[in-house]
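PROTEIN–LIGAND DATA SHEET

This sheet pairs a single protein chain with one bound small molecule, flavin mononucleotide, given as SMILES. Inputs appear in the order they were entered. The predicted three-dimensional arrangement of chain and ligand is reported afterwards as a token string under its own label.
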Amino acid sequence: MRIKDCNNIMDFRRIARRRLPAPVFHYMDGGADDEWTLGRNTEAFNDYELLPSQLSDVSSIDLKSTLFGQAVDWPVMIAPTGASKLFHRDGEPAVIRAAEKFGMMYSLSTLGTITIEDAADAGRCPKMFQIYVFKDRGLTQDFIDRSKEKKYAALCLTVDTPLAGNRERDIVYGMSAPPKFKFRSAISYARHPGWLYRALVRKDLDLVNITSSDAGAKIDSGVVEYINSQFDRSLTWKDVEWLAGQWDGPLVIKGVQTVADCRKAANSGATAVMLSNHGGRQLESAPAPVDCIASVADALRDRLEIICDQTPAALDAAISTRWRPAVSWGSNVAYGCCEPNWNGRWRYWAVTGLKNLASSIFSIGCSLPRNIA
Ligand SMILES: Cc1cc2nc3c(=O)[nH]c(=O)nc-3n(C[C@H](O)[C@H](O)[C@H](O)COP(=O)(O)O)c2cc1C
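PREDICTION REPORTED AS:
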């Protein structure tokens, strides 16, 4: 399949599958355990229907909005995905340039392959830094200070990762970072020498925010072992209060799914929540984000900005209008990363996703989302 034949995100997924070593593709594409949550995230859309409001004058569409006080052209943000250079040598900077071009908010992961500083300088779109709290609070504090210094619009604490998800595809296909060569994975890596060169010679895959920190953190083991040994599992809402005090700006809690937790987030000083089950990559049997949105929005819309992890554009449209949250895209952005021609890649990726979103908005008769209750 060629880029000009891509009509939807699943076409980009096909390209990603072809271009990446199998362990890397399955790391990007897989979910935790039996992947029930991963499947449910999209199956849940079958439970929804869009009721159009016909003859509503959709002659002009203006989806401009604000997120964390920043102007955005679309109520869509790019979710944090670790190690984007796994998927393409341009990695995070290319995604940032695309976010700038299309007027979207970009999120940099703690586990990114570009520093907080380099990401800030890579493009002028508003940015959020996604933080984890480490046992070594010096490292967490360092991330807060650096994000402040570089004027990130928001800080986002991911709370659904007390330990790395049990992704069975990673075991089956032999995914590890840095790459280890078992018989099966070695064959696949050997078919992608360019990828190997970047990983082993150029060291493109280093988690540079951690290794560049003055707090002196070192990753001596693999990433999964590092997460399981260094992320602070004793976190409570008291720590969110601490973080809110340190950051003193828009604070987003990512990975909550219930009204009760969202209320605790608001009471602890958060200004926004991301309804997310980490794209099905963490907890098996978690609810789909789309099923959480109505209750949370009804209870807390006045106290919190709400962002909902989503994929299919039609429902993006519905939830970004009726309940007025923003939506965040994770794996489909990662799929989009894999096409080597970045101009083509971003044009098609963004146009495919945003065009579907816009056409859904036309079809359900919402010309100006901000006018819709
Ligand atoms: C390859 C990949 C890496 C991810 N890395 C992170 C991360 O470092 N931090 C985080 O909070 N979420 C991470 N996520 C989860 C996304 O932020 C987002 O919640 C999820 O992808 C949304 O679901 P979707 O993939 O169906 O769009 C990652 C997701 C993917 C696919």
